[in-house]
Structure to design on (207 residues):
C-alpha cells in the first residue's frame, strides 16, 4: 500500500521502469505530479507490471500511487478498456449480480473458492477429478478476488469490497482452498494491508 511518507523523490522507480525511458529528472517530475494528485505521462505508459514497487528502495509502493491515479484520472488506455469489467464487479456487489453458485459435497473436505470463474469455463468432468472430488466448490460475482483489477483501473475495489469477499467463504465454516492466485493474495497480503478479518484457514491450490 502506498506510503507517501517513505518517498524521498529519488526517482529510482521510474528510472528503472522498462516501459519508459526516463532519466532521473523526468522520473522525479512524474512522481511529483502524481503526489500532487495531477495527471502525468506515466499513467498512459504504465502497463501495471508492479515492478517499480520492487525497485523502490524505501518501500513507498509507487505502483500503488500510479494505480490510484490511473483510476482517478480515468483516461489512460488500461482504465478505458477495463472500465466495463470494473463496473460489472460493482454491480455484483451493489445489486447482487452474478449470484453465488455452489457444488456441495462431503462435509469433511475443504471448500474450493472458484472466484468469479464460471463452472462451464472448465472441461466437463473437471470437478469429479481426483483433485477436486468431495470438495464444496463456490463461485460468483461476490467471490471475485478483486486484486487483479489494478490492471484495469480498479485499484479501489479491494478497499471497497475486500472484506465482503472474505466474509463469503467465512460463512461456509470450512477451510478454504483458493484456485486463483489473486484470491490467495487478497487473504494473505491485502487483508493485512487493509486490516480485513480472515476468519478461516486458507491455502493456495498448489499447497
Ligand atoms: S507498474 Fe507501471 S510504472 Fe511501475 S514499473 Fe511497471 S510499467 Fe513501469
Ligand atoms: S516511490 Fe520510491 S523509488 Fe519512487 S521516488 Fe519515491 S522513494 Fe524513490
Amino acid at each position: 500500500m502506498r506510503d507517501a511518507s517513505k518517498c524521498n523523490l529519488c526517482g529510482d522507480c521510474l528510472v528503472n521502469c522498462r516501459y519508459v525511458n526516463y532519466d532521473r529528472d523526468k522520473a522525479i517530475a512524474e512522481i511529483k505530479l502524481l503526489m500532487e494528485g495531477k495527471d502525468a505521462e506515466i499513467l498512459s505508459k504504465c502497463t501495471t507490471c508492479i515492478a517499480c514497487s520492487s525497485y523502490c528502495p524505501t518501500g513507498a509502493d509507487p505502483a500503488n500511487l500510479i494505480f490510484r491515479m490511473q483510476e482517478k484520472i480515468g483516461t489512460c488506455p488500461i482504465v478505458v478498456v477495463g472500465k466495463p469489467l470494473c463496473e460489472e464487479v460493482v454491480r455484483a456487489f451493489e445489486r447482487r449480480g452474478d449470484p453465488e453458485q455452489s457444488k456441495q459435497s462431503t462435509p469433511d473436505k475443504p471448500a474450493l473458492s472458484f472466484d468469479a470463474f464460471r463452472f462451464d469455463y472448465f472441461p466437463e468432468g473437471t470437478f469429479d477429478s481426483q483433485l477436486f472430488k468431495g470438495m464444496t466448490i463456490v463461485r460468483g460475482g461476490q467471490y471475485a478476488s478483486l486484486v487483479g483489477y489494478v490492471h484495469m483501473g480498479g485499484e479501489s475495489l479491494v478497499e471497497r469490497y475486500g472484506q465482503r469477499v472474505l466474509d463469503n467463504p467465512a460463512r461456509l465454516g470450512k477451510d478454504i482452498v483458493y484456485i486463483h492466485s489473486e484470491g490467495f493474495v487478497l487473504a494473505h497480503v491485502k487483508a493485512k494491508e487493509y486490516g480485513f478479518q480472515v476468519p478461516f484457514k486458507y491455502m493456495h491450490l498448489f499447497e
Q: What stands out?
A: The mean pLDDT is 92. The pocket of iron/sulfur cluster (ligand 2) is lined by residues 7-13, 31, 56, 58, 60, 62 (CB under 6 Å). Helices lie at 12-15, 24-35, 42-45, 51-55, 62-73, 77-94, 156-170, 181-194.
